[in-house]
Amino acid sequence: MSDYQRFAHQFLLESFQTRTYLNYSGQQWKKQVTPTQDCGDAVLTIFGQAINFHQLEGMLDHLGDSLILHRIKRHSLCNVYGDTVLRADVSIQDEARLKARMGQASEAFHLDAGIQRQQPRLKEPGLLVMDMDSTVIQIECIDEIAALADRKEEVAKVTEQAMQGKLDFDRSLVQRVSCLKGVEVARLEQIRNRLPLTAGIQILIKELKMRNWRLAIASGGFTFFADYLCQRLGLDDAVANQLEASDGKLTGRVSGAIVNGQTKAETIERLAKAYDVPHRQTIAAGDGANDLPMMHAASLGVACHAKPTVNDQAGVSIRHCGLHAMLYYLDV
């Protein structure tokens, strides 16, 4: 970060004092004492590393024809995890256009942003169900197993198409798993022992567990990895596909029913009932098209470094920050 960027960021933080709201209209900022009542019909959350006024004004100008900004202030988690986080009360004017504008502005100004009419409460027990591959961890395990069979490139292409929603998930999984035939089960430990966790996942889990949230994995991947991560991260449950094996080698088939998008949605509903969690306190997070059913089943769906079709349909997105940023979309 240059000296100018550091100064610009510090100037923004000092302008947003703890007990102060700002209003931005006609490219002008006005300061106001903290109001006692909420206004608007939605909350706009903006976050990123070392935000400055150039980025913030650029984003607000870009969204200006889709919403009315009433006031904006520092989020209570601003700088807690190293990110600048701002919270604004807004009134939505054009929801469809706002959704498109949000994605454009996020990429243009390298900021994350999301708009919500209601937010799950951090301090109340809730349920978070997460996809595993390319969400909790940074890799697709099936592609890495395929590498052991010298078929990674072939399988990875199918995986990418499936995650974009261009292929039927069940058929694509059967096709990909068939390529794994003959791989020794013992060799899967090579992958399991070096699973790269996604940045921010451990902070997210720690903060939610401290507040009695229930946490689970619902994955179209495999129990060999999901069960391990469930134990390693201290989660409450894990649902995934079971790879069939015989004589210490994969048969190229899965055992039992396939865990697909519908199964993931049913997992949200089942666990919410089992843990007595109200719907308003349920969150689903993922990156692929097969995560959309559980995102729609939950009160809040979070797209995490996701495919374009998922960003378009999820409630909110995390495009640039780590998974701890999910906390910014909660009412704290």
UniProtKB/TrEMBL annotation:
Citing just one GO molecular function, the answer is:
magnesium ion binding
According to the UniProt record, what class of enzyme is this? hydrolase
Report if keyword Lipoprotein is assigned: no
Biological process (GO) annotations held by this record are: L-serine biosynthetic process
A Pfam family this chain is assigned to? Hydrolase
This protein's GO cellular component annotations are: cytoplasm
For this protein, what reaction is catalysed? O-phospho-L-serine + H2O = L-serine + phosphate; O-phospho-D-serine + H2O = D-serine + phosphate
Q: Which UniProt keywords apply?
A: Amino-acid biosynthesis, Hydrolase, Magnesium, Metal-binding, Serine biosynthesis
**Could you tell me which pathway this protein works in?**
Amino-acid biosynthesis; L-serine biosynthesis; L-serine from 3-phospho-D-glycerate: step 3/3
E.C. number, please? 3.1.3.3
Instruction: Give the positions the UniProt entry annotates as the active site.
Output: 131, 133
Q: Which cofactor does it need?
A: Mg(2+)
Which family does the record assign? Belongs to the HAD-like hydrolase superfamily. SerB family.
Cited PANTHER family:
PHOSPHOSERINE PHOSPHATASE (PTHR43344)
- This one is known as Phosphoserine phosphatase
Q: Which organism is it from?
A: Salinimonas marina
This protein's encoding gene: serB
